[in-house]
Amino acid sequence: MQKRFPLLILSAAPLLLFSCGEGEPPAVAGAGAPPSAPVQVSTAKVDLRSFTDMTLSVGNLRATESVEISASVTEKIVSLDFEDGQTVKEGDVIARLESDEEKALMDIAKAELAEEQREIERIEGLVRTNAVAQVTLEERRTQAVRAEGAISRIEAMIKDRLITAPFDGVIGLRRISAGALVSPGAIITTLDKVDTMKLDFTVPEVLLGSLTTGTALIARTRAYPDDDFSGSIETIDTRVDPLTRAVPVRALLPNPDGRLKPGMLMTVELQRNERTSPTIPERALVPLGERQAVYLITPEKTAKLVEITIGSRIPGYVEVVAGLAAGDEIVVDGVLSLREGSALKIVGEYAAPSAPFDPTSPSR
Q: Which domain holds residue 107?
């Protein structure tokens, strides 16, 4: 036992020395740590932009006025006085039906009226001399009134055989030929007033509070994929569909060149709640769970994390509802290297978001 004791003392000595040596380096390193260098960032100032709340829907186009031209009597067509696609004015003749019999009846009715008027003049002289009773004169006057009524009835019959345009518009395709026998309800052609179009669509009832007559919208159709058609709401229906919980809405779209046709399907982008709000580049946002923040640049050129409330978005930018004011300067590029109080070195200003990728561009 006496021989092993010195060996235990010798083996413990190195361990004691090793533990003492480990305690000193952290204290030395902490005392001499250099200050962190400023973070290089690009910045942008909060500016004001226009925003609107967008609602998408699908609608059908209708002509402002639209009618199917047909005859009101059964008769043979004498002539068709229009060409397919022709523009006509109210009162222009579209078709003429055979009316020879009615014209003959008109000649007879006029002759009978003239005869009655002559008899009235003759009897009036006899009544003055008491040669004829007054009642005879009244009977003749009644016959004259009946003759005038017959003339008016025949005039209406002749008018029914002359088909005219009820309003200004564009004639459609001819559905029948001259010489054909037409009957009531048989379509001769169509007439549409298309200088302004009606666009009918539906919106959810929850939007009724923000919809008013005159609300602006943009409509698009696949027939003209590069064109936007601007219009405004004309009428909001008085009833909500109890099944779909949607309300029908009608808008007006100017159509001076006539490219829009009745029956076309259009997508509708409804613009509501127009406003001007502070705006920042979208890439400046710093997500904090379900919240959003940005790094505000202080007068001392340090980063201050500020929580904000965002609203609508447009390509590359986001609306700020609360937390920032126009003119505030924020960090756009370099946010991943920042933390609260970081020193900043501003190396540039944010210009604009990158253009969207276009695979058809010749430069690609």
A: 99-160
